[in-house]
Design a protein that fits this description.
Elements: E1 10-13, H1 20-28, E2 32-37, H2 39-43, H3 48-57, E3 60-64, H4 73-86, E4 90-95, H5 97-111, E5 123-124, E6 134-138, E7 150-155, E8 160-165, E9 173-176, H6 186-205, H7 211-232, H8 236-256, H9 260-272, H10 276-291, H11 298-305, H12 316-333, H13 349-358, H14 371-380
Parallel strand pairs: 1-9, 2-3, 2-4, 4-6, 5-8, 6-9
Antiparallel strand pairs: 7-8
């Protein structure tokens, strides 16, 4: 079977990358932007870094800031109606996963109105037409939504998140500008950075992994392992490196899938409103231990790029433990909570496990989990 790689058409990286937006808009002949950005980014004038460029160039736009964390179905529907009223012809998505996911869902539905109920987008949706053109400007170094074919929507009624996988949703242009990420507070920087590390590790060991994506994921793990601590401390160079690392991770996992860390984290976010990156990070070492016996020698390479010394002298048990320990140490160093105590309740485990088993990320896990396995993994972290 052939392996497919799908990436965005054009991406700009480094300081000043957002300046490329103007030339791209003019080159494509787009007339009016629908700027999706969350209220805090508007309030603290991060969004203005882009809209000021549009103003200076005399380009029309309308800001849509009714973006909620873990965007719910209703948020998407409102965004679709607002896009229509704005009479825009392209989208600029500025923010983290919430802004990006909302923009992708809106763009897809505008082009494919048969999916306006939103729920029908779950999984691999049979859409026919590409999304409204999207220019993606990330403000966090974690989700890599600017280069992935995935987005996640929350169904508040059913208390679950659902993953949408669609090659038609990928942004046409990505402007990965570290200056847009400098306002991240330390906690957000840590959470999104650990989300990126989870993407890289799960993508590296997923069933669909192959040589090209292995190359991407190992490089992403190396960059994140080296720079996340300094990025959380506010170092500008580290923020730039993390912007690249999370993007590379996105290039990989978007094409091969993830695993049960993400399926379990999605339901934690939907049910308890736990920040997605925090949920991924709490689960990661434990899920790595669970998967270890199904990963061949890959944990040796994870340990190596995480900076562990003398991995070639270690036996299988030793290098697998070394990889897990290195990830856990990084998580501790950036002040991620180390348990689900106070978050998960025993009475909810059955529902949480059912939701995780139904999640689109679960089939990619290298080890096929049972519902009982998932319950045990949650329970082991509740102490």
């Amino acid at each position: 079977m052939a392996n497919r790689i799908t990436l965005n058409e054009t991406s700009y990286h480094g300081k000043g990358a957002i300046n490329a937006i103007i030339d791209e808009v003019k080159m494509h002949g787009w007339k009016k932007a629908f700027v999706c950005s969350d209220p805090d980014l508007v309030k603290f004038k991060v969004t203005a870094k882009v809209t000021d460029l549009l103003d200076k160039a005399g380009l029309k736009y309308e800001v849509y800031s009714d973006i909620k964390p873990n965007p719910p179905i209703e948020n998407v529907k409102h965004g679709v109606e607002s896009f229509k009223k704005a009479k825009a012809d392209y989208i600029i998505a500025i923010g983290g996963g919430s802004s990006m996911d909302t923009a992708k869902a809106v763009g897809i539905i505008i082009s494919n109105p048969d999916f306006e109920d939103v729920r029908s987008l779950e999984g691999v949706a049979p859409t026919k037409k590409p999304s409204v053109p999207i220019i993606a400007v990330p403000t966090t170094a974690g989700t890599a939504a600017e280069v992935t074919i995935n987005y996640v929507i929350t169904d508040l009624e059913k208390k679950r998140k659902f993953v949408c996988v669609d090659v038609h949703d990928i942004p046409v242009i990505a402007c990965v500008d570290p200056d847009m990420m400098m306002s991240m507070p330390a906690k957000l920087c840590a959470a999104t950075g650990m989300d990126a590390l989870t993407h890289a590790i799960e993508g590296y060991i997923t069933k669909g992994a192959w040589e090209m994506t292995d190359m991407m994921h190992l490089k992403a793990i190396e960059i994140i392992g080296r720079w996340l601590r300094k990025s959380v401390a506010g170092d500008a160079k580290a923020r730039e490196e993390m912007a690249l690392g999370q993007y590379i991770a996105g290039m990989g996992f978007s094409n091969v899938g993830l695993g049960i860390d993400h399926s379990m984290a999605h339901t934690l976010s939907a049910f308890y409103d736990t920040p997605h990156g925090v949920a991924c990070a709490i689960l990661l070492p434990t899920v790595m231990e669970y998967n270890a016996g199904y990963t061949g020698e890959k944990y040796r390479e994870i340990a190596r790029v995480m900076g562990v010394k003398d991995v070639d002298a270690m036996n299988q048990k030793e290098y697998r433990k070394a990889a897990v320990d290195a990830v856990r140490k990084l998580s501790v160093d950036v002040n991620i909570p180390q348990s689900l105590k106070g978050i998960v309740q025993e009475k909810d485990l059955d529902f949480l496990a059912d939701s995780a088993m139904a999640d689109a990320c679960r089939p990619g896990n290298p080890r096929d989990p049972t519902k009982e396995d998932v319950i045990s993994l949650y329970r082991s972290l509740m102490k």
